[in-house]
Amino acid sequence: MSFYGLVDGSEKSLIHFLDQLSGVDQVGAEARAAMLATRSIKTTSKKWAIETAISIVDLTTLEGADTPGKVRALCSKAVRPDPTDPTVPSVGAICVYNDMVAVARTHLDAIGGKHVPVAAVSTAFPSGRASMEVKIQDTQDAIDAGAAEIDMVIDRGAFLAGKYGLVFDEIVKIREVCGDKAHLKVIFETGELVTYDNVRKASYLAMLAGADFIKTSTGKVAPAATPPVVLVMLEAVRDFYSITQRRIGVKPAGGIRTTKDAIKQLVLVNETAGPEWLTPELFRIGASALLNDLLMQRMKMSDGYYASPNYVTID
Fold this sequence. Notes:
alpha/beta; TIM Barrel; 8-stranded parallel β-sheet; 10% strand; EC 4.1.2.4
């Protein structure tokens, strides 16, 4: 596994590198995130922002009560978010549990959604507490069922205990299972990492181990994708690119429910990592309720009236 010249491959070198990372200025990060949250988008750009946000949504259902019917309905919405308007873009991906991957992939292919990837939450989501054998099998099962993206969770207990080599090795092994068949998104569960310094360390650890995306949260633990946390992760991918010339994606998930929330995320991306990251290949938002609000706001821009929730599906 290449370390892009940053460490020599040993656990000692990895730990030394992570410990030498500069600390995050908590006050500064929170102040900058708050300042960027006040930025507004011109009316002429709002339609572009809404459509960009739609195109980067990972439309998600991760409930014990999920049924094949619910997943198929969500897939239909992913391909044609507004059945009355074919100009609305498809979403970035459908995100489901392993046992629903085949259902999602089959239905997407049947309705003209071959371009919409299926993402599977894997590696004993959401806790990450399982043997490596189980995590590998979990990942392989998802890929065999048609998943093109794997959202894995790190072992937060190991990370917080300073066992960075263990966490690194797990990511490397899952990356090897993914091969060229699936992109790997690594979930930190930032609400459990507690500090911005830990978020920065986790970001570099995952990127060095081969992650294609770094992701804030499972959506099961609060706080999740807070603006300062996303800012720290965006700074990490920006700086990693400046060193390695490799762009890593970022996926905030949890708590992003409104168009205003989504636009704040777009501003964060543009002002921190740069406009190159404003694509589904490098930025996603994990959400379920968000899409409906984006669609209603888009309808308002078209006819001047804010549509009621009756005009969108109940997911």
